[in-house]
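Consider the following assembly input.
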Amino acid sequence: MNEKFRKWLEGEGDLLEHVSDTEEKPYSSREEIKHEVKRINDRVGVMSQGRHLIRAERRGFYALYRIVAVVSCVFLIGVLLFTIANLPRYGEENPRATEVTRRYVEKGIEETGAVNIVSGMILDYRAFDTLGESHVLFTALICVMILLRMDKKNMRHGYEDFYTIRDEKYFDISRDSIMRTVGLILIPCIFLYGIYVLLNGQNSPGGGFSGGAVMGAGLIIFASSFGFKSVDRVLPGRRISFITLAALSFYSFAKGYVFFTGANGIPNHIPKGVPGAILSGGLILPLDIAVGIVVCCTMYGFYSLFKRGNNGSD
Amino acid sequence: MTATLGEILKIILLVLLIVCAVSVNFTKTLLQAVIIFMSYSSVMCILWILMESPDLAITEAAVGAGISGTLFLMTLRRIEAENMRRRETEDPGQEE
């Protein structure tokens, strides 16, 4: 019997004591050792140099980025300041633009029937601009809806549960009692204020856009405190599009009538009313309501796109 | 030349406006940037009133401070910006 094996049996030593996993080649000479050390050092050096280079490059890029950003900002600020310096002083009469302004201020009430000159301007003198703006808003809403809307038709199969769970997690804020109580107090006030601003557009500051935005904000608060389902009962997605389209068509046809009669010298039969009364200003009040509805629906439409899945038709 | 109280208020608000606009660039998180953006709109709203254009003030308060801020916040929540930031702070990347 082997001496080693006998020792192992008696528990004195390990059988595999001298057997290592990798057989290292012993360096035969000093030269070889030196060569190996040099090789390792070179590799480490190259690696660290490379990392250094990358870091320096990145630092250089960021420095360049910052310099370019600062230079472009300073350039932009300079251009804007130069432009502002050339503007007429605030409140001073500007001879270049005084003609139109004087006409608006002096004859605005008489010609439009609106006490609020701004409303008279944007919905009577410059009604064409407002028409374009409303259409831009509507088009933006339609485009965003086309891109972002997710209903059962274009949702990937098997993801319905994922969206449901995620949205339950995200919108469980609607079960929050603080949100509900605050909403209960705030929502009627916000809507009342929005409707007031909307209907008094021709007499006091405000009008279609501001009133519509306030009402849209009210709808958003309503949706976030009581859930999308309670809004959907009043305003489902399809009805939003329908109402917006109806308001826009009304605006276009009403204003088209005025443009047509005005351009051809035909007297139109829209009463101006007494300036200061609610039913005054001719077409301004209905147009205000139309613009307000468009803006309100657009704002809420944007918000409702954050809702999960079956948005709109079903 | 003595400045009236209204002018002093106006100057304070204008400085606040610049501070808001600059500090958006130095915020660490997107949430802070959105909140500063909303406060910028609120300051701008007061300034519109001081410049005697209440029409714009109403619109600025409703749209700038209200709706667009809400939409930004909803977007941040949708893209899970907070979770992303947490992941980044847990695992500091290659940036120093």
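The interface with chain B takes residues 116, 118, 170, 197, 205-207, 209-210, 213-214, 216-217, 220, 299, 302-303, 306 of chain A (CB under 8 Å). Ask yourself how this observation constrains the way the partners meet.
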